[in-house]
Amino acid sequence: MSMNRRQFVAAAGSVALLPLVGCSTKPDSQHVVVIGGGFGGSAVAKYLKKYQPSLNVTLIEPKTSYVTCPGSNWHFADIVSMEQITFNYEGLKKRGIQVIHDSVTAIDDKAHQVTLAGGQKLSYSKLVVSPGIDFKWGAIEGVTQANAEKIPHAWQAGSQTLLLKKQIEAMKQGGTFVMIAPPNPYRCPPGPYERVGMVAQYFKKHNPKAKIIVLD
């Protein structure tokens, strides 16, 4: 579906942005602060700046690089390298977007300010909050953040992807790979079975007698 500039700005104003009463209506005085530099936050920052170049857009993201979860399963079958699915924020900076690598500790909607962990306060005209998803540690007995270093989930791409890949590579010949598909709802319905397919492809080449068991 194509979307022109007018349609995008209208949609962003009604869905993605939090409008505040009393803000200036001059385009060059508008400051949009975007919290979160994943797919959602980066896309909003990019297209707001593209369709309204006079906007002052600031993206706040603690990480200096982003590893895409889509495509991360392909790493297990050696289809992509980690470098191919890792991106920095230089492209946004080149578009004139200010990128601050810090965490937000508070939002004051009355003063129209966000406070950063480093102590900096940013005033905004409109605010986009796109922090992404996270785990509910403790929702399953025995599953903790510490255990994830031994039994990797790899549902957040990056170090967990590398850890699981190393364990797959270190499996003994004819070993068993057990995976639990998380209960609904979760972010990526095809994720578990895409992973099964990629791990199976790796085993077919490097460990053909290995077995895969999926608990769903």
Draw up the topology in text.
Elements: H1 5-16, E1 31-35, H2 39-51, E2 56-60, E3 65-67, E4 86-88, H3 90-94, E5 98-100, E6 104-108, E7 113-116, E8 121-123, E9 126-129, H4 159-170, E10 176-180, H5 191-206, E11 211-215
Parallel strand pairs: 1-2, 1-9, 2-5, 10-11
Antiparallel strand pairs: 3-4, 6-7, 7-8
Helix pairs in contact: 1-2
Describe, in plain words, how this protein is organized in 3D.
- This protein is α/β, with parallel strands linked by helices.
- Helices cover 27% and strands 21% of the residues.
- The protein has five helices and eleven strands.
- A hairpin with a 4-residue loop joins strand 6 and strand 7.
- It is elongated.
Offer a concise description of the structure:
With 216 residues, the protein is α/β, with parallel strands linked by helices.
Notable features of this structure?
single chain; 216 residues; alpha/beta
Low-pLDDT windows of residues: 11-28
Class computed from helices, strands and strand pairing:
alpha/beta
Gyration radius, in Å = 21 Å
* Spatial strand sequence of the major β-sheet: 5-2-1-9
Main pleated sheet: 4 strands, parallel
Percent in helix: 25-40%
Number of helices: 5
Assembly classification: single chain
Overall pLDDT confidence: 88
Beta content: 15-25%
For the termini, the CA-CA separation is 35 Å
Based on CA inertia axes, which overall geometry fits? elongated
Helix/strand order: HEHEEEHEEEEEHEHE
Total number of strands: 11
